[in-house]
Fold:
Amino acid sequence: MFRAGAIFITFILSSVIGQADEPWRDGEQLRYEIHWGMFVAAEVNFTAKSQSHDDLPSWSFQLDLKSRGVVDSLYPMQSSFLSAQQSAPWRSVLFTAHRNENKREKKYRTEINYVSQEGSFENKTDQTSEQFAFEEAALDDLLSSLYTLRRHPWEEEKTCKLTLYEDRSLKQAEARLIELTNEKDENGRRHPCFLIEAREQGELEEGKRRVVSRIWITRDARRIPLRAECQVRFGTFRMTLKQKSI
Structure:
């Protein structure tokens, strides 16, 4: 009984400490508009919640995306992504996606096992699954990587290397501090910011374009992403913060 009580107290303390160490708060919500050229293409909502995964303090990150305007008429999209991230050590353990794009539905789930150094990918749409191996002690997924950049100590370390998993493959990326600058928030107030550039590393398949992203993160305790730009095959998408809570 004493051991069970000690474990419970340790878990509560580690959860509180883990929350205090991160720049975001439990329940934080950030809403953005995504622009493609002159058009508002979509809106996206990020939510961060404290949770437990395998009895370890963790974070749950969710992204909900919905197309808007002309894009919604030509290529409607409504998708949700979920990431489970352990707090200590900091690493992704689960990523799920439910994508509905132009009336085509895709659902998949990737779970990471750091004991066996294997990941399991399950395509719930066609009921197939596959295992893949990795050697890294910590991985990120496409959603958790944003929070990894927010918690990185940019004042002391000007680069941040990431190993991302997407479906069954691993990708290397490097984020670098480009400059200290100022950026307006959703209310027009200027904030000191880090301008971070993230670039996909390694060889590219023929016909593919290297993904390059830029993100403006406030230089304060909250580390709020105010704006981002991403260069992809279809052009450059811009993401602008419109509302935040908590």
Summary: Residues 1-19 have pLDDT under 50 and may be disordered. Residues 2-21 form the longest helix (20 residues).
